[in-house]
Structure formats: C-alpha cells, structure tokens
Amino acid sequence: MRMYDLIIKKRNHGTLSDEEIKFIIQGYTKEEIPDYQMSAMMMAIYFQGLNEQETLALTMEMAHSGDILDLSSIEGLKADKHSTGGVGDKTSLVLGPMIASLGIPIAKMSGRGLGHTGGTIDKLESFEGFHTSLTTKQFIDNVNKIKLAIVGQTANLAPADKKLYALRDVTATVDNISLIASSIMSKKLAAGADTIVLDVKTGSGAFMKTQEEAFVLAEEMVKIGQGAGKNTFAIISDMNQPLGNAVGNAVEVKEAIAALDGRGPQDLLELCLTLGSYMLVGTQKASTPEIGRKMLENSIENKSALHKFAEFIKAQGGNEKAVFEPELLPKATIIEDIYSPKAGYVREITTDEVGVASLILGGGRETKESKIDLSVGFKIKKKVGDFVQKGESLAEIHANDLRKLADAKERFINAYNFSEEQISTPTLIKKIVTKER
C-alpha cells in the first residue's frame, strides 16, 4: 500500500477502505508518512468529501491512535458533554453537579481555554487550591465516590487528531464537516463515556455561523457516535449573544453557583436542563427527556446539585466554602458600568467581539503561554430584545488595568447594535438531533 496511490484514489472520487484509512492514520502518527503527502490527502478530502463509513473509520483510527480512557471500573453508565464553544459558556460547571447529584457518573477530561475566556479547568481554578492533577486511581475513586471528577486532557489522547489539526490549520483544510466531526468525536470516544451529548453552537459567537451548518455538523457527529456504539445526542443552541449574563472566569463561576442555587439566568438553566435531560435518557436514568427534566429541576430545588458541586470542589483540593460564600472567589480591583451610547432595543450583539473584549482585559489566552486573570470580565445587563435608555448601563466591567479597561469598554460598546423597532428574543434551542432524526 502506497500513500501516493491513496491520494490519487481520493482525488479521483474514490472511497477509502477501513484498512486504507488505518494505514494513513497509523503511518502519519508514526511519522512514516510525511506532512506534504498528508497535506495532499487532506486537500483531496476537503474537495471530494468522505462518506459515512469513511468518516467513522477515520474517527475510530484517530481515537485509537493513543490512550483510550478505561472507565470499566466505574460503576454504572457514564455520561459526557461536549460544547463546540462560545462566549459565557459555563454549562459544564452547572450540568456536571446536576447529573452527578442524580447518581450518574461524570468522568470528564477538559482542556484549558485558548482565546476569548478560560476553559472549564481555568474557571474551576478560581477556587483556591483546586487542581486536576489526579492519579488514575484518584480519578476513578472520586467518580465512584461522588460521581464527578474532572482532569486535564492527557498528552496522548487522540495524538493523530493533534497532528492532523495542526496540519489542517496551516493548509486551509479546517472547515470540512467530516474532518471537524472526526476531530471532535475522536477525543470524545477516547474519553470513554457511554453516552455523549453534544452542544453545537450556532451564531455570531460560534464556529458554525449558520443554523444549517450547525445541523449538518450535529447530524454527522451523532452518526459517528451511534456508529461507535455510543448513545449520542446533539442540541443545537443559539450563540448570537453570550450565554447567561457573565463573561470571564470567576464571574462565570459565580453565575454557575447562582444557577445551582436556583437564582441563575433563564437561558443558562434552560440549556443545562435540555442537555441534562438527554444525558439521563442516554444513561437509562429517565425514560423520556420530560421525566429527566423534572429530575434535574428537583436537583436544583432541593439543593442537592449545589452541595454536589461543593463536594466535588473539596475532593479536588479546592476551598468548597466559596460555593456558599462566592465573595471568596477572585475579585477585580476596578468595577465600572458601561453606559449605552443611544436609546433603543438591542437588535444584535456581535458575540465574538464581547469575547475579544474579555480577552483584552486578560480573561483569555492569546498564546498557550499567556497567564489568565481570573477576576476580570463582564456582567451583562441588557441582551437582545431588551429596551435600553441612552446612558443606561449595558453591563458591568471588571478590570485590573485602566488602559485595558478603556480598550475593552470600547470593544464591548461596538459589539451592540440597536433598533427603534421592538426585537423578539432569539430562540435558545434551535434543534435536537437524535439517531431517529
């Protein structure tokens, strides 16, 4: 078998067999196939596409190119959630404790953020002492004992995906649905859960800008998951404005705590209830999403989810008192209002720009070496559809540097567009994709 022949085959509309895909991925991972040949193959795939079987085979080979997390010693069916990313997305901080409080194991591998705001691990490090440096035994024991543990991604989790993504990034072959779906799902399959629920964002703050693109990606990933023997569901959710009201790290943690205490913003709660209800169906804890939703609502009402969050923080070395006293979390030295330059209804928020404003404050990373300021960010007061008077506060800005504050404030204001006509609130849940539809 020669890579040269396989490049020609795919270039000429041919279908690659499972064995041929195995040869390609194993050869590239072992550095037996050079970058220039793999670049040619990626470009051929970009133009000719992959069919359903090719996409599944590619995903499975990438998943098995490194470590597969063995969760067999964890009792019960395991669930995991993946988000395609957005601004103000703190769902894991709310959803994990809700699900764990109902006895469903969540053994999660999360990354750090690169871009707008920190990742889940960065946000959790707002709790003094919190760490993710657990041994495999500690990780498994924590999940068996309290049903929730989060660790950083291992260096050897789907290494073929890391190599391929770096190559695609510099050869203009990133935005192909099959390659995007394989990249995401290879890591999820390697992480070992039985049920996978995907939160596919769409809109100005998402990778998939249109609902149509998001649906195609969601459908592709559900097919991969089901083909790999996992109960897989996808929720397509709106990212044409930040999720919830907080954007940053510690400010998002405080909002997650409020949500677990029944005081959070409605859109954040609604998304968590929707995602969680399908996690419960997939793990056979609930027979329907409606029953699952009621169970999750009860976990908020009886405070079991909030107490589970505190238990989880303590188990990983963090100061659990901050769950009940959020004022112990990092605070910025400068807190100011951002005033609206005009009156009208909020017509649009360019969500990416809000993310960039948070990055300017120090709330995200421009490079892997950047140090995050956990205390900075925004508390948004006006969202799409809201009426605002000229001079009324759009948001609260939390900063530690006056120059960064000025730049971020200007960026934030420019993200808002206004209308004289009343604007309807955007629908949060756009579509739900299951194996049946």
TrEMBL record:
Keywords: Glycosyltransferase, Transferase. Transmembrane segments: none annotated. GO terms for molecular function: 1,4-alpha-oligoglucan phosphorylase activity; deoxyuridine phosphorylase activity; thymidine phosphorylase activity; uridine phosphorylase activity. It comes from the Bacteria. Catalyzes phosphorolysis of the pyrimidine nucleosides uridine, thymidine and 2'-deoxyuridine with the formation of the corresponding pyrimidine base and ribose-1-phosphate. Its EC number is 2.4.2.2. It comes from Anaerosacchariphilus polymeriproducens. This is Pyrimidine-nucleoside phosphorylase. The keyword Nucleus does not apply. GO terms for cellular component: cytosol. Homodimer. It catalyses: uridine + phosphate = alpha-D-ribose 1-phosphate + uracil; 2'-deoxyuridine + phosphate = 2-deoxy-alpha-D-ribose 1-phosphate + uracil; thymidine + phosphate = 2-deoxy-alpha-D-ribose 1-phosphate + thymine. Residues 345-419 form the Pyrimidine nucleoside phosphorylase C-terminal domain. GO terms for biological process: pyrimidine nucleobase metabolic process; pyrimidine nucleoside metabolic process. Pfam families: Glycos_trans_3N, Glycos_transf_3, PYNP_C. The keyword Glycosyltransferase applies. Belongs to the thymidine/pyrimidine-nucleoside phosphorylase family.
